[in-house]
Structure formats: structure tokens, C-alpha cells
Amino acid sequence: MKSKTILITGSSRGIGKAVATLAYTEGYKVIIHGKTESKALLQTESELKDVEKLVFDITDKKATEKAISQWIKQNGTIDILINNAGVAKNFLSNIDEVEDSKAIEEYSTNILGTIHCIQAVISSMLKAKSGNIINIASIKGHPQLSTLSTLTYATTKAGVISLTKSLAKYYAEYGIRVNSISPGYIETDQVNDWKKSTFEKIRTGTLIGRIGQPEEIAEIVMFLASERSSYMTGEDILVDGGYKLKGK
């Protein structure tokens, strides 16, 4: 059976790198992606060896379309799109601290960037009458779990969940599934930069009693990417170590 092609945006580190690594291990044809040809992206390429690489800014619609369409023209359909690239810029103690430029960057990346990537692959998926899109949302996209400190970021991730459900409704009849995953607190570079007191508060806020690992999110992503989830579409899977439940 021909191995399926999977594109993971923002795959130089963290969850994206973990997904790329697992997909490669499971025999998928992997395309990694970065906004720039960073040292981290080159390191991922070196570690996985037999992968392809695309470099473009997802906030730039024309650049995204050009890079992805050119790859499809030369190589064939991208079967699975993982919209992982995202940013969090505004960290607030009150609403007066919202910086428009940071909010615009969050929206441009988390919402428009996701849309741009979907726009670039959807024609080939429709032609193939098959496709799988997985969007990485966030625990913050759930109203019960959003906080003032990440107000603008949370609204973009709520938008990703809504986008997922809208697209799932429309494209189901064309053989295209669309789902999302809302990770809780995962041990990434950003989380590792937190103060020890903040890290401990989050850890004890989960039922499992620890921060999640990128590899644990990757397992859920690859479940959705596989035929094991063939009866699922329009779903958002919360993977938070029981944070939401304990918070109740």
C-alpha cells in the first residue's frame, strides 16, 4: 500500500517535531515545515533524514499557496495536513494591556495561517475524494478553561475549534475528515521558561499530577491521521491530564 503523505506545520520543535518523528516511524511520507530555515528545523531534518522540507510563512497567503501547490504539482497529493504552527504573544494581567500588534500576530498565525494551509491543499484533496485535516487548538479555546492572561490567544484557539467543525460539516460528503486536538499544558520550550511556582501550580492542577509530553499529543494526532479514526469528523479531543475535570 502506498504510504500517505503528511505535512506538519511548525515541526521544528515541540509537538510538531514529535508528530513528525512519530509519523516518520510509522512509515508516512513526511513533510516538515518552518517559517524560516532555522537551526531547529535543520536539526529535525537531519535527525529524521528521509523527510522533505518546506519553508514559508503561513501568514503570507501567496507564499503558502506557492510552496504547497508547487510541491503537489511535483509530487502528488498531500493526504494529511496537520495545522500545528501557532503563537501566543499577549500575556495579560488586565484587558488594558492587550497590544494590538501582538493580537494581530496571533490571529494572523493561528486563524488565517491555518486557513491558508487548508486553502492550499483542499483542491487536491477534493480531486482525490479523500483527505484528512487535523488542527491543533488548545485547552484555552474551551470557554471554561480560558483565562484573562491569555485572552487574545484563547479567542484564536476557540476560532480554530469552530473552524474545524464548520469545515467538517461542509467537506464530509467529499471524503475529507476534519478534527482538532486541544492540548493541555505540554512540556515545550515556552512552558520550560515558566517560573517554578507557575509550573508547580499547573502540575498539581491536573488529575494525573504532571505536565504532558509532546509525544503524548503526537500519539493522538497520529490516531486521527490513521484509518483507526475513520468514523470521526468534526470532533475536538481534549488532552489535558484531567485538568478540566479537576478544575470543576
What are the defining features of this structure?
7 strands, 248 residues, 47% helix, Rossmann fold, globular, 15% strand, oxidoreductase activity, acting on the CH-OH group of donors, NAD or NADP as acceptor, alpha/beta, 7-stranded parallel sheet
Question: What's the arrangement of secondary structure elements?
Answer:
Blueprint: E1 5-8, H1 14-25, E2 29-34, H2 39-48, E3 52-55, H3 61-75, E4 80-83, H4 100-128, E5 131-136, H5 151-171, E6 176-183, H6 189-192, H7 196-204, H8 214-225, E7 236-239, H9 243-247
Parallel strand pairs: 1-2, 1-4, 2-3, 4-5, 5-6, 6-7
Overview of the structural elements:
With 248 residues, the chain is of the alpha/beta class. The protein is 47% helix and 15% strand. Helix 3 (61-75) runs parallel beside helix 4 and helix 4 packs parallel to helix 5 (151-171). It has a seven-stranded parallel sheet, with helices on both faces. It has one domain: NAD(P)-binding Rossmann-like Domain (Rossmann fold), CATH 3.40.50. It has helices at 14-25, 39-48, 61-75, 100-128, 151-171, 189-192, 196-204, 214-225, 243-247, and strands at residues 5-8, 29-34, 52-55, 80-83, 131-136, 176-183, 236-239. Strand 4 (80-83), helix 4 and strand 5 form a beta-alpha-beta unit. The protein has nine helices and seven strands.
Number of helices: 9
CATH class: Alpha Beta
User: Overall mean pLDDT score?
Assistant: 94
CATH architectural label: 3-Layer(aba) Sandwich
At the third CATH level, what is the topology name? Rossmann fold
Amino-to-carboxy terminus distance:
46 Å
Question: Helix-strand pattern, N to C?
Answer: EHEHEHEHEHEHHHEH
Number of strands: 7
Shape: globular
Assigned CATH superfamily: NAD(P)-binding Rossmann-like Domain
Number of structural domains: 1
User: Major sheet: order of its strands?
Assistant: 3-2-1-4-5-6-7
The assigned structural class equals alpha/beta
Return residue spans where pLDDT drops below 50 for at least 5 consecutive residues. none
Main beta-sheet strand count, sense and barrel state: 7 strands, parallel
User: Helicity range of the residues?
Assistant: 40-55%
Please compute the radius of gyration using only Cα atoms. Answer: 17 Å
What's the oligomerization state?
single chain
Beta-strand share of residues: 5-15%
